[in-house]
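Morning F.,

Quick status update on the modeling queue. The single chain you submitted on Monday has been processed. Sequence for confirmation:
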Amino acid sequence: MSKTSVNARLAMIQAFAEFMDSGSQSATVIFYEGVQPANTSVAADSNNALVTLVFPEPCIKETTATYVELHSTDTATVIKTGTATWARIYNGAGEAAADLTVGTDIALANTNLALGGTLAVTSIKLRP
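Structure tokens below.
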């Protein structure tokens, strides 16, 4: 479906926003080192987790006809030294919502994360 109407895209984005805030917890994004799984149905290797960032509730800052922007995350402490290569966004129920490739889908000022350092994400815009 490469050519969808603005209204169809808006409906997909609104459904995604509702999915992100579902569940009893806050949505999160976890940065990992290593090889990114083929898709979100493949479990991430928790041994490769570098840092977990938490979104406020609701996590959606803005919904437009072309993207959903998430609020800034909290600042979290890095639990393992490594190079962030990808990230997975989870909804409030802990279900995988999206995988992001660092450097392509999401930019970090420094991808080399050090144990005890801190990280926060100021802006994430997801496009259907």
